[in-house]
Amino acid sequence: MRKLVLTVAGVVRGESSQAAIGVILSDTQGKVLERLGSPIGRATEEVAEYRAILEGLKRALRHQPGEIVVFLENRTVTNQILGNLSPREPAIQNLNRQVQEILRQFPRWRVSFVDPEVCRPARRLAEQALFEETKAERERAILRQEILSLVDDLSVEELRRALSLLQSLQAAKS
């Protein structure tokens, strides 16, 4: 009976509440089978944590383990999953229900609250995903400003050609 270890983290940054998840799936010897850092848009820390768990559990199911051990650094989410605490918000109740449904698909499972140090590698993946997304957004904003400043100096005919080019790029994207 093969046991897998799932370590997850949900990270939220800034006033915009941009969030990302970090997921590491490994065997009991520490060999990493899968890792993921992915932005998920705006979310609370609790939602981000649940989204990380869901993604990790779905990935773990593909490996068909006999047992899954999930490590979380969020005590509230751990207690909700274990049934020691009821989620108040409907969105969290729904996420909790989804986690329960997936956990029932494993022959054996355990969810444990652990020291944040244990989840640090998963947290780093989530933070890196947020950094990359922010970096791309900054670059896009800079390029947009440069394009807008160049447009100011174009004639009407040049603007028509530029518009035509942009429309063809947009059509090719679709």
List its salient traits.
174 residues; alpha/beta; Nucleotidyltransferase, domain 5; 5-stranded mixed beta sheet; elongated
Strand content: 25-35%
Give the number of DSSP strands: 5
Mean pLDDT figure: 92
Instruction: List the helices and strands in order.
Output: EEEHEHHEHH
Largest sheet: 5 strands, mixed
> Tell me, what's the shape?
elongated
CATH superfamily: Ribonuclease H-like superfamily/Ribonuclease H
Q: Find the CATH topology.
A: Nucleotidyltransferase, domain 5
What's the gyration radius in Å? 22 Å
- What share of residues is helical? 40-55%
The domain count comes to 1
What is the CATH-assigned architecture? 2-Layer Sandwich
Order of strands side by side in the largest beta sheet? 3-2-1-4-5
CATH class: Alpha Beta
Produce a short descriptive summary.
The protein is an alpha/beta fold and 174 residues long. It has helices at 45-61, 75-81, 90-103, 116-151, 156-173, and strands spanning 3-13, 18-27, 32-42, 67-72, 108-113.
How would you portray this structure in words?
The protein has 174 residues and is of the alpha/beta class. The protein has a single domain, classed as Ribonuclease H-like superfamily/Ribonuclease H (Nucleotidyltransferase, domain 5, 2-Layer Sandwich). It has five helices and five strands, in the order E-E-E-H-E-H-H-E-H-H. It has helices at 45-61, 75-81, 90-103, 116-151, 156-173, and strands at residues 3-13, 18-27, 32-42, 67-72, 108-113. Strands 3-2-1-4-5 form a five-stranded mixed β-sheet. Helix 1 (45-61) packs parallel to helix 3. The protein is elongated and about 70 Å long. The protein starts with a strand and ends with a helix.
